[in-house]
Design a protein that fits this description.
Largest sheet: none
Helix content: over 70%
Number of helices: 4
Number of strands: 0
C-alpha cells in the first residue's frame, strides 16, 4: 500500500471504530489508543482523571515507541479488521 492508501484506510478504520456502539474490551482499547496516538503523531500526555488509566495508556505508548507512523496506521487497520472479523 502507498502512504496515501494507508492514510485513507486508516481514517476509514477510525470512523468504523467511532461508529461502533457496543463496548470494546479494555485491552483492545488500549492497543487502539496507542497505535492511534502514534499514527496521528499526537504525543500529549494521557488525560484520564484516573491515574491508573493514565499509567496503562503511558505503558501502551511506551511499548510501541520504536515503530513509524505508517507502521502504527497499518497495525491499527489490522486490529480493527481482525476485531470485526472475529468478534461474536
Amino acid at each position: 500500500m502507498t502512504s496515501e492508501e494507508i492514510d485513507i484506510t486508516f481514517l476509514e478504520s477510525v470512523e468504523r471504530i467511532n461508529a461502533h456502539t457496543e463496548p470494546f474490551p479494555a485491552d483492545f482499547l488500549l492497543r487502539l489508543y496507542a497505535y492511534y496516538k502514534k499514527a496521528s503523531n499526537n504525543y500529549e500526555r494521557p488525560s484520564s482523571r484516573t491515574p491508573i488509566i493514565n499509567a496503562f495508556k503511558t505503558n501502551a505508548l511506551f511499548q510501541i515507541q520504536g515503530i513509524t507512523e505508517d507502521e502504527a496506521k497499518e497495525t491499527y487497520i489490522e486490529l480493527v479488521n481482525n476485531y470485526f472479523l472475529y468478534r461474536k
